[in-house]
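Technical appendix A lists one of the benchmark inputs used to test multi-chain prediction within the project. The record comprises two sequence entries:
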Amino acid sequence: MNKEEILEKVKSALVTVLEHDNFQLTEDTTAHDVDGWESVTHMMIISEIEASLNIKFKLMDLMNMNSVGDLVRIIESEL
Amino acid sequence: MEFVKKLYESIYTNANQNAFYIKDTFYTYKVFSDIINSIRFALQQNVSENEKMLGLVTNNDIETYAAIIALWFEGKAYVPVNPEVPQKRNEQVFELTDIHYVIDSSEVSTFNDLEVINPQKIESVTQKIPLKKVNNNDLAYILFTSGTTGLPKGVPITFNNVNALVNAVDIEPDFNLMPTDRCLQMFELTFDFSVVTYLFPILSGACIYTIPKGAIKYFYIFKLINEQRLTVLTMVPSIINYLRPYFNEINAPDVRYCSFGGGALHADIAQEWSDCLPNCKVFNYYGPTEYTVYSGFYPYNKETHTKNHNGVVAIGKPQVGTTYIVVDENNKEVQVGITGELCLGGEQVTPGYWKNPQKNEESFFVKEEKGEMIRFYKTGDLCFKDNQGDFLYVGRSDFQVKIRGYRVELAEIEFHAKAACEKKVNIVALDILNQLGNSELGLAIESDEFDTTSIFEYMKSKMPDYMIPSHTRFIKEFPHSINGKINRKELKSYFEINK
């Protein structure tokens, strides 16, 4: 899976959890840029990505994640 | 006032200890007391004796915490508002309480109609200012919670109420904080649980670790536990529900105490969480805002104390100075084992809702108990007492729900949603369990699909974000029960978020 495909998966997880697609997703996007993306929905998004890609994140990685780019890199390392 | 004196002494005795860790910075009690003195000086210069309550904008900085203590040392109350909540709602709170002055450490204050004291921009005072006399029945704070009519509901708490809380917790032999403790403070200061997470550490000279606004709360807490080696955790159960998938990576031997409150603690997750904290005592606290945070607790232990009802851990026994009774709809006490409404009596009961005689009539009553006339608060929580004198939680008696520890009246959400909806349709707010076992809000609309953008924009201008439904469903015809009421239980099945 390449970066674009991963980004697409992340996008669809966001749409599922947040119930809107009113955002642009790049590697520099952070939670602050997307309406409704906060502590609780973040946890839902993470578990949605885990389910759709059949991976399991490590708490140590999640703890230091600050942007969508970080998220994509962690997913790459898990695939 | 005993506890205010103790706070005053602790702050000077522990001058060299760390008091706060906020946004990667440590502050000592010396620094803390200097800021308190500066704020007190500003209050004495600018605010008359008669102004007994001031507004407080709850920023995550040391000045905001210092402002609370400064106000108490001056015998005044704080009325906190969260800057992330719609401005209209915060203005409403200040109007209801007739606030003229607000302490606001924000770069630019949004309260232009009030006298703003910015603690970042006041004269610095380092000499010790003697303690003012604090009257027992004066207010220490007023917190506002969700109300049914679209107006927030104020709960005033007196210095005497707080003093009774401090005495009850001090008497408890199993819970003693030390100056070496490192304590989590994860709560917004408009939420009553925050009172115990700053008050008890300051009384003991311990260090308080806060959560930056905008951080992913759950991971930040883990980071603090892991990197700062916290020793005392005070949390709502939803925190561990969200961390549950990662429990196998958590091992925190430094944690001595973990107190839960503000929602039902489930026995299975409590057990798994205990495995992550091998040297920890777990307390399942109970108590509403109206009873000054805590009224009692159950000392959970995965091996010896696992009492629960339908998987919800017992709330245990009342603390010293508190009386629990379970009553029927006529406020008559029911027998052991019978479910009824839990009522709380004792020195921690609020004097009554702020300017709300009707609600006070409904929520408080006086009853003779063991030869004494006691004023009781009706919690709205259904409970029963078992043969060993422990109380067990059964559910809510009304349409109030807990979202992330906050109390939410579903009627308030419906009120605002309907007010913004041009079509005259039925709208029902529901609490739905998500796949991680936490409550989320759903909005069911009896209609064909239409654009709800304007409804949501309106709701966001009226209510804090935890009250905005995260799921919307259109249903052509609402299901009804036999007696003609909307069948809320069946309505919930339309929200398939717990696949």
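Chain B touches chain A through 25 residues (CB under 8 Å). Chain B has a mean pLDDT of 94. Comparable benchmark entries are summarised in Table A2.
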